[in-house]
Amino acid sequence: MGRYAARLYLLRNLARKHTVPAVRLWLTAMACVAASWIGTPAFAQSQSQSIKIGYLHGPLSKEKISLIDIPAPNDGLAGAQLAIDDNNTTGSFLGQRFELIESKIGDGDDPAPAVKALADQGVAFIAANLPANQLLQAADAGKASGEVLINAGAPDERLREQDCRANLIHVAPSRFMLADALAQYLVLRKWRNWFLVSGSHDGDKAFADALRHAAKRFGAKIVAEKEFKDTGGARRTDSGLAEVQRQMIDLTQGAPDYDILVAADESEVFAGYLPYRTWTPRLVAGSAGLVPTTWDAAFDQWGALQLQNRFKKKFQRFMTPLDMQLWTAVRIVGEAAAHANTADSAKLFAYIKSPEFSVAAFKGQKLTLRDWNLQLRQPILLFDGRNTVSISPQEGFLHQSSELDTLGLDRPETKCKLQ
Fold it and tell me: What pTM does this model have?
């Protein structure tokens, strides 16, 4: 029975992804025929498997420069819900049933009680969108009960390095991965002289460090640096626009000649105001202008359009990077369950960490885990606010194992000791 179920799973996936209507129709018909062979009550009963996946998160940040960027209340959650639907589409033919259980905690709250509550409900895999400290607390709290956390939001390098955990998978890319993706493209275009402007918050400084590392790694030169100190203030007042224009001109005046301004502004305080307001007419990249990201609503390659359309039909909005990261986190569990044909969490986790595991995420290639720190390898999109400009890793940046490992710290550089 397992062999037939696996074949049906492949037919369903091919039917969903094929772009030629006639072929898609034929594959769908074949899948229906196969389903009639194995979809009997006796088969379903013998293969019945229930898999619960948790979603643990804090409040979404509402601090955005642009009103159109303020996240929807279900940002992230919607991506996880769509992935549950996709898991159940395949699972219905394999006797598997997936359920999402949401748990929300406050800023600074101890996540341990929430992790225990999820474990008591039979949840073994928890997709999480939490800051680094809370994420580590959650992973440590779940270790004794065998909980596996899947980081879908935190980019902090230390989570993959000195503070890595053996029960913590990372779907969200690290800051170094994002910075390397941007640096490869800029160096390829021969925009090697950078003017780095960073914010005054911790996340801004960490992203600036990642950009400095990327510049050194790929042969760019930072010719000048400045810091934008966040002093607050209301920029949406009647005089706010004029004030911002003066600030950006003053901030960027006096720099030596440079090819491109690279901004590190994770807090979204100033970078969005830089394009078209710099003292010298130059391009902007980093936290504004050309932005490295996991997803954007305009992306339509490798079958992504069908995912975008399904998401928009279900939720009446566009899919965000956080939605995609949660979708991927939940799909990792579904993909493992389909291939391993089990609901046993220990066996699923072992399969996810094995060389045989991969997950398809509309990025043109299968995504796998780095075995030294459990980071998901993935291409990074470079988005200009309207279109996908390019996708890294760029052509010509080679690696002995996987070109995706040119993004972020590589095995010889890691400080991670999984425990």
Answer: 0.88
